[in-house]
Amino acid sequence: MIPTALRARRPLTAAAATALAALLTLTGCTPDQTRPGRGADTTAGPAARGSALQAVAALDVKGRAPRTGYARARFGSAWADTDGNGCGTRDDILRRDLRGVTFRDGRCVVLSGTLAKDPYTGETIRYARGRSQVDIDHVVALSDAWQKGAAQWPARKRIALANDPLNLIAVDASANRRKSDGDTATWLPAYRPYRCTYVAHQVAVKRKYGLWVTRAEKAAMVRVLDSCPQERLPGGGNPTEAPARFHAG
Fold first, then answer.
1. Which residues contact 142 (CB under 8 A, 6 or more apart)?
2. Where are the alpha helices (DSSP H) in the chain?
């Protein structure tokens, strides 16, 4: 008589194998389905540590609140000198983003310069004060921020957001008007090579200030950043509260 332990090690006969396959078919299983897998999460590829893609997961998801009560004045007077360097925020960003800059006063008021490669169109744009085709865009639009948390903020936090260099960029004026107050789900730059950087900045600003995103917006952020999982989350900028001397309407 063959011991039971040895009998258990015999390979399945053809008949036994056929019976097992039939049983699996009836139960709706396959051998692979009996093993643990990664599940159905296909929202993103592997995110690098410190990347914008990794940071998206931490953003709160809520519905868009009403725009009721929004006005530009709720974010303070335009281009306030919140960093105390003696220059308005608009001129600070022009000086940072343009090349070949000339000044009216030698230091602050930018008269001319060149946007060597507009982030939104990829074109070269000449800046001339008073007849400019260059705007300073809020990467996270103030109206969008109002509908995603800023309506409940103290005035000094709204003023800080409106003048934070992390949230500001010199861009083609026409593209900026087309964007309006769109978020990632409703508007992206036509210049595709900049999209990862653009979305990374939106994530950084919303994370820094505690703004939420809609479900569609978060999904759109993941779609863009999944193509560049190494894109770093930008940092820096001004404090999230303007000095006490600043007030908003």
1. 70, 72, 75, 150, 158, 161, 162, 181
2. 4-8, 14-27, 52-56, 89-97, 142-146, 155-162, 173-179, 195-209, 215-225
CA distance 226 to 36: 25
DSSP class of 236: -
- Residues in CB range of 67: below 8 A, 6 or more apart: 143, 146, 147
Cβ(205)–Cβ(211) below 8 Å: yes
At 212 the three-state DSSP class reads coil
The 3-state DSSP composition of the chain as helix, strand, coil percent (nearest 5) reads: 40, 10, 50
Report the C-alpha dihedral over residues 40, 42, 45, 47, rounded to 10 degrees: -80
Entry pTM: 0.81
Q: What is the pLDDT of residues 186-237, one digit of tens each?
A: 999 999 999 999 999 999 999 999 999 999 999 999 999 999 999 999 999 9
User: Residue 102 is encoded by which pair of tokens?
Assistant: 């000339």
